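User: structure tokens for this one?
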Amino acid sequence: MLLVLVVLVAGAPFLGTISPQAMDPGSANLAIGTHASFNDLSGESFEHFFLLGTDAMGRDLWSRMLYGGRISLTVGVVVAVLSLLFGTLVGLVSGYFRRFDALVMRCMDGLMAIPAMIFAISLVAIFGARLSTLLVAITIPEIPRVARLVRSVVLGVREEAYVEAAIALATPTLKILWRHILPNAIAPLIIQGTYICAAAILIESSLSFLGLGLSAEQATWGSIMAEGRSQFNQYPGVVLLPGVMLALTVLSVNMLGDGLRDRLDPKFNKRT
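Assistant:
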């Protein structure tokens, strides 16, 4: 399911789409599967097949959903990667160097006490609705969760005999962390990354729905639903179709995380 969604959004220019910003007021609220003449405000006119119809401004809903999916998936993947990167670094330092543990973990606890949505809204309100601001606003609340996960792994592995032997042989600290401790955290980190990706997609869509996401010119699933809610009773598809797309994406990412957990975590591996 996730592979199909990725192929759709990646191949948007080749799947019968037009510019997601192109609008024709005369083609507003067309039904699904309508073939009509499209007169863009820029003066361009052509025949087009509207697979999923149009919204209240005469914009192709199929195009807006595919191009909006690019932003949502990009945010999810980038936030997951950044969270894993910085969270792993913090967790390794906190778990291995005991003198920093209390200070680092109290800072992480402080971040976890702030609701992720409130934190994101605050940053966007201060620094403006840009993609970079969204990425930072969604990433920071996820770092403590990764850090605590890595720290718990480090605390357990650090007492193993092979790590103590490496310390006794004066093995460089970076080598111990990289070769002996970090590999034990790879499996739980991959699983955690999928859940962070799904959460980031939901937060980005929620911010866009509230009007705190990217600019109105850039289509996202949340902004499409927000623009269509005023006509929901007459044209529910403008809200329901991107909503279904969002739900399927989050569901598929979470299912991927569950599958990876069954494969990589011995506690959940049925064969074990």
